Recover the amino acids of this structure.
């Protein structure tokens, strides 16, 4: 482990036994890159609390850091209070704290954490000045824009905000040297192509304080990706996550970046993700074709609500019809996955609104068969948002501004009609209802076969297919059916010529002894499929050892029909088995 001047940490407890995904948390690595370019040695680490504490102990004991920075979001405030106090009391090092929750922190946080300063909003220039002060003794806290600190009287002082960085191209690229531990950096890359958001959604922290949008040039973005590829010449596969909210704001930018990705894909496999705004895609549908041509694996849409009054209250700037059309176009262009949330409890929320949310979500699942992903979430009272600042205007009551009751699993709001427990139960009901609806769509053949088979390919197996993947995994015989088809050992009957069909070997996809049930009346079932006397003779022969022609011949001894009639009956039953995902076929 190298010696550093400044080391940044983004640490979370393992809440409700869920390991956090740190792929899109760029902030502390951008800070490390910026300090490295400006004369200080810096690295960053994202991970779980105790793992990070062990690294902090090792670094501080060995004198390999002189300043510690902590990233603070709505979930890890208490972690940062503990860590900052621990570092100050055990190692006497200066500690600074920043991140999206910084503007909600107050004097109590400063006192309990003992941190030297809280960095508000954009951090690069502020952290550079703080490093100069805390490491070199140059400057004074009262002269540093964009911070909060305790003065000599123990009062919290908030200095004036620092002007935003206008030229984002001037910022350095994140390199492997910015990572205390590389982790997934060797095969994944997170990219920020712009900052700010013009949409000012009522629930969103980003749009609440950085309405001015600043873009990196496409040349700069492409250069960073190329620099990463040059630094990893043996890489065969890469996942790119574009983390900014405004990736699809300008069609020409999207086209240029997508064309660059297409060029790299001629040499290697690249999967990638971006966020998108419904209205911009609706207004410029050509962007969806750019994303599809560049094989975008996942687009995250800001749908958020299933009723127009709530959409309007959220200031989303989109309509239900626009959402329908964008999902339809994504399905038409075969975008692999479109994901969004429906926010419960945030604005004018009632039972009626909830059931209309579910109805709209099901409609979107029908439009985006096998690609549309929707989850229910309760409202998070993020700092400075319209709903958090004035919840009464949205018929909402905030119960927990401090995020001490929830890790995303319990509602922090209630309404006059619904309590926090009821809203939490509705999140579960929403997800269950949509999960069952997906299973019904899968079993009834509404999701295109080739799309499902694509989920099982060696290139994409289990990757980023979210809730559709979980749905089919909860249909064991259908999962087994597609697993066998993807093995290259078997095929469907539709893939065979008439001559090949007669000589092919039908193969059941699951064990009879693990799937059979017999009721008191003697009715035999495989899963939900009722087997009559002929099926009870035929299905055991569908193990793969005999051809259809051989099976028909053997059954002729027990069923006195002509050769043609017997073969037709066998084919008729095999067709039904196949429709029920009970058999596949081997050519040999």
């Amino acid at each position: 482990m190298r010696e550093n001047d400044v080391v940044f940490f983004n640490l979370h407890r393992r809440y409700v036994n869920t390991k956090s995904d740190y792929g899109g948390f760029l902030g502390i690595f951008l800070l490390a890159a910026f300090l490295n370019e400006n004369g200080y040695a810096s690295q960053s680490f994202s991970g779980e609390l105790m793992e990070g504490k062990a690294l902090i102990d090792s670094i501080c004991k060995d004198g390999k850091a002189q300043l510690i920075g902590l990233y603070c979001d709505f979930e890890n405030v208490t972690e940062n209070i503990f860590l900052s106090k621990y570092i100050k009391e055990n190692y006497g090092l200066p500690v600074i704290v920043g991140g999206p929750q910084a503007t909600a922190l107050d004097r109590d946080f400063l006192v309990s954490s003992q941190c030297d300063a809280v960095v508000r909003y954009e951090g690069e220039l502020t952290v550079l000045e703080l490093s100069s002060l805390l490491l070199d003794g140059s400057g004074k806290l009262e002269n540093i824009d964009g911070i909060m600190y305790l003065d000599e009287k123990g009062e919290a002082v908030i200095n004036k905000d620092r002007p935003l960085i206008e030229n984002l191209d001037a910022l350095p690229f994140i390199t492997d040297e910015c990572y205390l531990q590389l982790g997934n950096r060797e095969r994944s890359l997170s990219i920020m192509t712009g900052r700010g958001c013009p949409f000012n959604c009522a629930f969103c922290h980003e749009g609440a304080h950085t309405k001015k949008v600043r873009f990196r040039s496409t040349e700069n973005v492409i250069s960073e990706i190329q620099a990463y590829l040059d630094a990893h010449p043996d890489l065969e596969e890469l996942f790119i996550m574009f983390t900014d909210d405004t990736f699809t704001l300008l069609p020409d930018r999207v086209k240029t970046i997508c064309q660059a990705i297409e060029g790299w894909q001629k040499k290697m496999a690249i999967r990638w993700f971006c966020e998108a705004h419904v209205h911009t895609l609706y207004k410029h549908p050509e962007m969806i074709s750019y994303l599809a041509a560049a094989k975008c694996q996942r687009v995250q849409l800001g749908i958020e609500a299933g009723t127009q009054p709530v959409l309007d209250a959220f200031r989303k700037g989109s309509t239900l019809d626009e959402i329908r059309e964008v999902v339809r176009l994504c399905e038409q262009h075969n975008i692999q996955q479109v994901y969004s949330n429906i926010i419960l409890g945030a604005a004018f929320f009632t039972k009626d609104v909830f059931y209309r949310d579910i109805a709209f979500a099901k409609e979107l699942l029908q439009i985006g068969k096998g690609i549309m992903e929707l989850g229910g979430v309760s409202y998070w009272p993020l700092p400075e948002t319209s709903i958090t600042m004035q919840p009464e205007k949205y018929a909402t009551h905030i119960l927990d501004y401090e995020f001490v009751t929830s890790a995303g699993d319990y509602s922090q709001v209630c309404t006059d009609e619904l309590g926090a427990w009821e809203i939490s139960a509705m999140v579960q009901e929403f997800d269950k209802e949509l999960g069952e609806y997906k299973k019904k769509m899968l079993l009834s053949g509404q999701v295109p076969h080739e799309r499902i088979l694509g989920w099982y390919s060696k290139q994409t197996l289990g990757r980023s297919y979210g809730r559709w993947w979980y749905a089919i995994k909860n249909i064991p015989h259908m999962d087994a059916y597609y697993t066998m088809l993807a093995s290259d050992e078997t095929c469907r009957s539709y893939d065979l010529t008439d001559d090949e069909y007669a000589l092919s070997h039908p193969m059941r996809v699951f064990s009879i002894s693990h799937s059979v049930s017999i009721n008191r009346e003697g009715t035999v079932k495989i899963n939900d499929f009722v087997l009559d006397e002929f099926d009870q003779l035929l299905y055991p022969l569908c193990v793969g050892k005999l051809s259809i022609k051989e099976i028909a011949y053997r059954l002729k001894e027990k069923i006195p029909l002509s050769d043609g009639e017997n073969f037709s009956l066998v084919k008729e039953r095999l067709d039904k088995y196949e429709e029920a995902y009970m058999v596949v076929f081997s050519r040999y």
